[in-house]
Each structure stands twice: as structure tokens, then as C-alpha cells.
Amino acid sequence: MNGKPIRTVLRHARGPAWNANLLTFNQRLGHAVPTAELEDDPTSLNDHAAESLRHMVEHAAHLLPAQGPIEVFVHHNTLHAFEEQSFHEAVKSGLARYGAAPYFTEQEYRQLYAEGRITDSDLEAVIKDDLGERAGEQINGLGTRCEIRYAMLRHPLHIGPDAELRWVVAETDALQRFRERTTQINRSRIVSAAKKWLQDSAGRPEATDDQNGLLKKFGPNIDNWSDSAWEAFSLHLLWRTCLNGVSSITPASLPPTYDRPRDLLLHATGEDIDRHVHEVLIRFCAAYVDQGYSDWLLPNRDQGFFESFGSLYSESSRGLDRWLKRLPDELSFLRNSNATAEASIEVSLRELGIAESGREEFIAQSLLALGGWAGMIWQLESGVDWVVHSIPKGSLVGMLAVQLILEKHAIRKIGAGEFGEYESLATIVESAQKRLSDPAPLNRERGAFLLFQVAQMLGWTPLELQQLSEAEWKQLSEEVEVFDGIERHRIFHEAYERKYHHAAINAFSKHAARRREIELPWGDRPDFQIVTCIDDREESFRRHLEEVQPRCETFGAAGFFAVAIYYRGAADGFYKPLCPGVITPDHYVQEDVGYTFEGVHQGRAELRRRLGLAGHLFHTRSRTFLGGIFAGIVGSLATVPLVARVLFPHLTARIRRRFGSLLQPPPVTQLQLERHAEPPGPTNGHIGYSIDEMADVVIRLLQDIGLTKSEDFSRLFIVCGHGSSSLNNPHESAYCCGACAGKRGGPNARAFAEMANDWRVRALVAQQGITIPNDTTFVGAYHNTCDDSVVFYDLDQLPSSHREDFESARDAIEEARRRNAHERCRRFVSAPLNITPKDALRHVEGRAQDISQARPEYNHATNALCVVGRRDWSRGLFLDRRAFLTSYDPTQDDEEHSILLRILSAAIPVCAGINLEYYFSCVDYKNYGSGSKLPHNIVSLLGVMEGTSSDLRTGLYQQMVEIHEPIRILFLIETTPEAMLSIMERNEGIARLCQGGWSHLAVIDAETSQVQVFRNGKFEPFDKSDGELRQVSSSLECYEGERDHRPFFSIEETEVSS
């Protein structure tokens, strides 16, 4: 590029040469450019203007999906861009910005109301709380504001487009029969008023027209009218009254505005330029961010999106669609001018006629048009260490520059076809604007029909309504109109959440009171202790384990167990982070094969490499002409293992394991955990932790779970990470441990156990006041939540003195996982409700191996609670796998609540992020979620798209959320209101989520069972309901024979023989 850096902004003198070049270029494109457009050289963009454009792009980037590569799926708040707003304001912003539903549909809420999931008492309480002092205000003597809104929620409303309502009025029995749920009292009132009107109107000339019209329709002999005729007459009169009343107050609609020329052209011509632009842009985006799927690398990829696109498409128009035949000319011109991406954007904005005041919104809308790809590019360029092949900074700016260039060519194509000759792009836009007709005023029938329905609900008579003045009609109409669909859905949703949350708080309060009367079943020491992740899927696993072996004690902690590392397994090619997404690890840990098996390991690694190369070669060769013929002839043989995997998943899994063992690393491995040199790093000598750092890790976890007293330790302590594995599941990372950045938490558990077993670490831990008994042994484990298998690490190092303890614990875990599988199977339609625990375990193992399974497990679906506190007061409470369980002992915290702050700083954002992602993907799986899993294809090894060409689909797919209830999570924390308020003052993220209504918050005093709920910026005592908490003898009684959500139950503690 003439020896100048590609990113340098051209600053040559503006003059005749520039104007001549630009004029020649535009003439080659086939249109003239006014002289005024040639006075400046847009490619000589100054630093301030370039920075301003970059700032606009960065601001728009906050509106893009924040999902990273699909292998590192980290759950987050889908509406993170609006988190500064309150929840209900934010979902409205999401509707305006993304066109995505903020809540369930009204039909879904009314179905829940019919089923009793939403009750009248909940609706009434929510309305009164929402309106406050305004609830009792009278509206023109027709009823209170609360009564009107309550009626509009209890009774279905027919609301639709004007044409549909006209059809309803003309063709259905809407004017013949009262609404189905109209009370007899209201029917009688309205009919009686109609009779009185007919009598009174005889002497009033102004009523003659209405009277004559109605009598002509029903006949003049009113003495012979039947009851049904009087009913129809009354409804016609009521309808005419409502129609006349609103006729003078219906406003005209405002003309639509279009932020992008694309939107204007779509409405004016029916042609969508995005269809043409995205076809090209998607292919290039996929190649640009590719992590190893493609065979060739893009030219100049390391220089940026804009530069790489220019290098690829500027040489020749061969292979391009006709509408892009001039694209190489424009790209060549920009490259020869050393134009930057920012300069190209400036050129495009001028040509498109985008005003300075509208640029920021135009840029945001343009990027959101292909938001999935734009969001991925922004995530990758933001410096997060997620991928092997990173992309340079400024890639999103480059993408926008390319997108606008393509849009200009697409607009020219449509302009030539629709409007003939044109002088400039602005001319095309003006022609499209002229084609659109002026907006018609809003039809008055919509508002009238809404009032017509409400009048029947509340018994408003025609006589009462006819007495209203124009100002009163306006007030009444506004009162009904302001309680529109979104507002009704909001109230429905608050009532929907209120019922569950009140039931939950009541259950915890009553169960905690019962637990205070029960002594711990293990006496001096538990038989064994186990700490799992706080994951809601571990709730049932822990509950069943406590039922199987009441003398065990369970804890919950973030599943990375304070071991934040980059980890590389023996068969891995790269290090990967195993810690929450908000943490950047400092330490590296590597799994090594035992020296005795080093030769075997090297041989298997070489075999894996060769098989990989052979598979890649077969894949590429099969895409050639001869390869395609060969694949067509012998390809049918590939259906044999495919069908076998579907019909016989267990058998094929055993065969795969048998032959797969020849490729896997040898079974004897060890962690390279201790570091001998500073600083931490990925090279020999720098891998691992120092002994002091190991002690810090052990101290932190033990403090977090409240296990700090020597006498409280058991002889065997199991640290159990978790993850999930299934076949044909691109979203597998979303099923794994969120605290390990969507990876499996086994290595973290293994590392912690090794640290805690080191006598040098224990000595340092003891100096900090935590003495781990000499007879306590830690064992690392891993729980696969998909097939419910549990594996243990480093059992060769288990002391012989602890083998009996371990075998007893292992037997209890075996039985617990069978029972856990049985509870899970009630949700799977493919599993009969009378399935046995043994067959249930086999069933979930089969789901994990079935390549046709769209629902290997339901992951976090149905999550609704997060409990932070001692297990003593929640143990034995059936929570239906809906609660995150975090251990915390307030009696061991300091006055500053440092431990609680540390726990909540991770637990609240992580659990709320999971909950909110499920919420939004559930209420609108097409816009907030990734649609159905069935048409998904992996692209660029980074994500999925639908079919062969679509936007990158982010969020959760439909099958993952189909049983979910979109309820904002309730955090129930064992602490004081003062402590929580102090924590919110010190942590902005927690305050934003709790004070903004993104999650619900309550605190509990386990000693008194008193609960206080955070509402309107302060804690208020919870008014206990009279609901009963049923006691049962086991978890099986809670769910046996049921598939839907279950209420809370208190499980009686099993007696243990001494």
C-alpha cells in the first residue's frame, strides 16, 4: 500500500486530484455525484472524527449479545446493556430495541390463571401494591382504579388490529350475547338500563336517530321481544354509546420513522437489502473468526476485518453476484487511497445521507441487524483469552465499514430496479419516501371495543356512560388504555412470581423452626463430608445422599473451589481457564502421565494426531468431484454406526469406550501442582502454586463453607466438582460448571484435595487458626450431571486406614445417584413414571450417549432460588431441584461480614446471570434465545447458526428451557438486614441486581425463623401465610407419579442406629 501502514489515516492535500479520482470512481459506479460532495476528502479523516466514530461503535457494542465462544459458555444477563435500569423498564427497552417479548403472552398468563398457578389474591395484592395510594381513586363514579384493573386481568380481553375488531363486531356474536363471564347482576343492570333508555328516548329528538336505527334492526314491536333480543339490543346500545363516546378523543397516529434506509426501502418496495448483504457478510464473518474449520486462511487477517475483506474482494469481480460487480472498483479505490475503516464509514454515512444527529442510532441498528456475528467479533477483539486464533482490535469497526459498503451496492440494485435512473443514493431514499402514503388516523373502534368489554365486566350501563362529559370520556378511555398489554403482563408476572416466592419463604420459615427441634444425626463426627458446587442440579443429589446416609454432612461452594487456574489435561492441546468468567487466573496447572507410562502416552498421542489428520484429509477430499462420487457410493456404510448409536446407545457406548481406551491417556496421571520458581506461568518450573498460595486456597474454601473447627471435620472429606457430557450437543459447555467458565470442575476438585492433603499446607493453615485433624483425608471427585456417574481421583494415594470409610461413602453415593436419576426421569416423557431407580440410571446413561437426543438433561431449567446459609435449617426440605445451595456460617464471619461479601460477590452475579438467561430465553426463545436446536449447525467452531447461513444464534435453545418457569430468582440469605444493606453499599453489582428488581432478596434468622423481604429499598417483615408445609418420609413421596413442578415438602429425618 505504497509503503504506508494499512491503519494510517490518509492526510494528503485536498485538491483537484482527489476530486477527479472520486468523480471518475463514481462515474464507474454509474451515477453522478454533486459537486458539494467532492469538496472534502472523507478518507483524510482527522483523529477527532475517527475517534468519534470508534466511540459510537463501542457504545453500540454494549447492545450486542455478550456471549463468547460456545465452548466457553458463561451464563449472563441477556439484557446486560440495560442493567442500570430497573427490571421492568429494561424489558420494555429490550422490546423497543430488539423486538423481543418482555414477558409471557397474555394467553399463557391466562392459562396459568385458569390452572390456579396465579390466584385472585395474588393479582389483587400486586395491583394494590403497584398503585399504592392511587388504588382507591374513583374514576368518574364508575369504580376505583384498582377495580378496573382487577377486572381487566380477571376477564380475557379481545384486542387486535382494527380489521380484526371490525370483523368481530360484524360477524361474531359479540353484539348478540354478553361475555361468558359477565355476572347475572351486571347483565340485569345493563338490560334494565337499555329498557329505560328506550322509554326515556321517545321524547328526546337527539335520541331519535339511534332509536330508529336500533328499532329498525330489532323490530318496532318491543312487547314481543324475547330475552335474547333484549340482550342483543342492550349490547348494541352499549356498543354505540362506547363508539360515540371515544369518537372525539381518538388521536391520530404519528408517521413512522426509519433509522436505516433498509427499513424505508423494505416498507416502500418490499425488497430487503439485508437479505443480499448478509449472504456475503455471513460467509466472510465465519471465515474471519474461524478457529480451525476452514482449510485456507484469509489474506491479511491479522491486519483487521476491513483490510482482509479489501484484500480478498478488490482484485476481481469473478464469482460475485451481479449487484456486486462494481465492488472491486470501490475497494480498490479505498485501498489505493490508504483509507481506514473509519474513513470508509465516513464516506458511506455521507453517501447514505445519515445526519450527524442520527449517526449513533444508525450505527447501533446496523450492527444489530447481524447482532450475533457482530457480538462475537466484539467479544473476540476485547482481549478475552478464549480462543487460539485471536483477532485484532478494531475488527468490529471494520465489519461496520464493510457492511455499509455492501448496503450501498444493495440499495443501488434496488434503486435501479424500482425507480429507474438515479443521481445518488439520497435520490433513491427520497423516491422511497414519496412512495409511502401518509398514515391513517387510528381507528376509534379499537378503543371503543376495549371499553365495551370492560363495561360488561363491571356492569357499566349505557345510561351511566351517556352522562359522561367529553373530558370524563377522555379520562375513562385513558385509564383503560394506559393499562395496556405490557402493563397487564407486568402485573400478571408479578402475581406469578409472588405465589411461588411466598410459598418458598413460608416453607423455609416453617422448616427451619422444625429443624431447631432436631439434633444432628451424626453425634461427635459425621461419617463423611462432601462439598459440591452450588449448582441447582446438586440440590437433589445432596438431598438423596443425606437421606441414604443421614450421618453424612454436605456443603455447597462455587465449583472451582477457590482454585482459579489455566488447566491443561494430558490429552489437551491448550490451556483453558477453569474459574468464573469474571476472574483471570494467575496460575497454571498441568496433568502429566506417570513416568512409567510416558512411552505409551507418546505413542497414543501420535496415533491421535495421525487419526485426526486422516479424518481432516477425508473430510476435505470428500468435497472434491471424485471424492463426492466415492462418498456417494460408500457413504451408506456410515449409516450403520449412526443407526446403532440411536437404537443401541448403551452397546455403542461400550464399544466406543473399548476402542477409545486405545487413544486415551494412560489411567495413571498426576497434577503438576507445586511451583518451584516465580512468577506463575505455563513453562516448566513456573506451573502450579507455591505452598503459601495453596494454604490461601484451602483457608478460603474452608472459611466460605464454615468448616473451621477441628472437631467438626470427618475422617473422609470428598471435594466433588461437576460437569456434563453428551453427544451431538454443541451447547455442552452450557451444561457444565459455570464457576469453571463452562468447563468440567473435576481438575479443580482434584487439585484442592491434593493441596489439603499436603502436611506443609496444613501447617500453614493451622497457623491461621484452622487445624485439620491428622486423620482427615481429602478425596477429589467428579459428578457428571448428565449420566449421574461419579468418579474419584488419586485413589492409589488413599491411606489403607481410610478404605473402609471410603467404601461406605462410595456405596452411599452409588445409591444416591440412582435415586437422583429416578427423580430426574420424571421430567422425561420418554421415561415411564413407574420406572425403577436402577432403570432410571440406565435411562439417563442412554440419553448421554444418544446422538438424536435434543434434551440430554434439563440443565438449570426451573431454577428459582438461591439459599445462602448453614445447611442445618434447610436440610430435608424438598426444593424440586430449583435451588442453588451455598454454604455460609454467619457465626464465623467478622463484623464487616467479609466472608459473606466474598461469597455473594460471586454467587449473586453468577446465579442471577443463569436465572436471567433462562428467563429471557424462555419468554422469547426466538429473539433472546437461539431458537430450536434441530436446525443448528456449528460454524467456525465458535457457535451455531440455523441451516447453512444465518446470524450467529446466541442464548439458550428451545428444548433447554421448555419446562422452565421464567421467575426472577429469590436470594434467601442467613444474615441480618443491616449486613445485607452494608454489602449492597460496598458492591455495586449486587446493589444493581437487588435494588433494580433483577432478582428478589430476603434474609432469614435461622434461630427465630423470622424472614424479612427487601422491597422498595428497605427490608420489611414477611407476613407469614397460613399455608401448610406437608411432612413426608422421603423425597420419593414428593414427586412420585408427577411430571410437573412440585410444591415444597418437609422430609422427616431418618433415624440412625448407633
From TrEMBL:
Requisite cofactors: Zn(2+)
Main location: membrane
GO cellular component: plasma membrane
Alphabetical UniProt keywords: Cell membrane, Membrane, Metal-binding, Transmembrane, Transmembrane helix, Transport, Zinc
Transmembrane feature ranges: 625-648
Topology in the lipid bilayer: Peripheral membrane protein
GO molecular function, one term: zinc ion binding
Binding site for Zn(2+): 533, 535, 722, 737
Domain of life: Bacteria
Subcellular location: Cell membrane
Biological role: Part of an energy-coupled inorganic carbon pump.
Complex formation: Forms a complex with DabB.
Family that this chain belongs to: Belongs to the inorganic carbon transporter (TC 9.A.2) DabA family.
Official protein name in the record: Probable inorganic carbon transporter subunit DabA
Chain's gene name: dabA
